Amino acid sequence: MNLKKWLRKKRRQLKLAQLTKQGKACSPKKWVFIVGCYNSGTTLLHDVIASHPEAAHLPREGQYCTDQLLIPSDVGLTRVWALQPEMFVPSLKNEPDAEKIKRQWCGYMSNPLLPVFLEKSIPNAARVEWLNRHFPDAHFIALIRNGYAVAEGIHRKAGQSVEVAAKQWQQSNRIMLDQLDKVERKLLLRYEDLTSKPAESLEKVMKFLGLDIARLQADKHWTVHGETSKIRNMNARSISRLSDEDKAFIRGEAQEMLDAFHYSSDK
What we know:
7 strands
């Protein structure tokens, strides 16, 4: 670890320790958690909702704004947490301290006085039931995206094989859907609908959250993973990077979920 990273880590540790001792746990009207596999559009959706003047948000994923949640890359699971889900599903052996998380997140929130608190951490797909128990009036928005496009993105950004990336997609979605079955306030969206029918999809999201869609800044350019554009479907470009062999490997690993959501390698 170089000096710059070491200093950043130490500053983070000091701030979290201070928030744990002196911070206050806020009480928003709603906690909103966005969940989904990597490369499924969660960052885009988070940023669009965060543009609403009644939604407070964190400067980065919530897992980096607390010392209570395990970060996949810290345990050698970069973008593939679902390969070892037992490390991320809260249990008696590894249960996070919810009150500490609240104090720490509230210290990082853009405006702790707003009625809606927005959070996005990919491994929270394994913590939906736990979050629902510990965060009052928790609402969950889950995104599903074509597994071929997702696997390509994980492969390209994390260097994982397409087979491993496809397994992550299927396993994480399976866990997420199972967790969502255990809570009441949930909304499941397809990335393809969000990007092809953004107005209709975002109206559904705002209605779910009880927010005025007229105050949402949806019609603008968004920067996601270094690329800036309006809301649009990027599946074709991602899938075009896959070879026929890659597609066969992905289907071999994730056929069950691909078939369940009627996803193919040509859209």
